[in-house]
Write a structure and sequence with these properties.
Elements: H1 5-25, H2 27-45, H3 50-80, H4 86-128
Helix pairs in contact: 1-2, 2-3, 3-4
The structure holds adenosine-5'-triphosphate (ATP).
The site of adenosine-5'-triphosphate has 10 residues, from helix 4.
Length: 129
């Protein structure tokens, strides 16, 4: 078995091209990217512990990856048929549903992670008045 560095870099380039496509053409992917940057910045400002930061990065990565898979499924379906078809609808709706389900749980986890430090800041702010 041979290991090819060139092949490895090529596969990174293909993956980067897929990410660039999703960013330039999928509004939801752009929204998720912007929200992710805001959430990571807020976590850094609030001085999150290492495990909380890792959990946050994991769920953000999972949401973005799922969004890319959703785009891949949409494009694959469009390639198979441009006609309206009930099975094409199920495939696209189920893929969108997967993103929605994970995003909802990601929001719940985010709220649970941000709630205690937010309460602490409000307490300190009230004490300082
Ligand atoms: N070929 C099809 N047959 C039946 N229903 C379809 C088909 N294509 C799309 N749909 C329906 O329209 C919805 C939106 O499809 P579309 O491909 O426009 O996805 P989208 O989420 O709007 O993607 P994009 O972000 O690329 O615009 C799908 O979730 C599905 O319910």
């Amino acid at each position: 078995m041979r290991f090819s560095v060139g092949k490895l870099f090529k596969s990174f380039a293909y993956a980067a091209s897929g990410i660039r496509y999703a960013f330039s053409s999928e509004q939801n992917f752009r929204i998720h990217c912007i929200v992710s940057i805001a959430v990571i910045t807020a976590a850094a400002v609030l001085d999150f512990s290492l495990w909380k930061f890792c959990l946050l990065l994991f769920i953000i990565g999972a949401v973005l990856a799922l969004e890319l898979v959703n785009t891949a499924i949409e494009k694959a379906v469009d390639l198979v048929t441009k006609e309206l078809h009930p099975t094409a609808k199920i495939a696209k709706d189920a893929a969108a549903g997967a993103v929605l389900v994970f995003s909802l749980f990601a929001v719940i986890i985010g709220l649970l992670l941000f709630f205690p430090p937010a309460v602490e800041i409000i307490k300190q702010w009230n004490a300082g008045r």
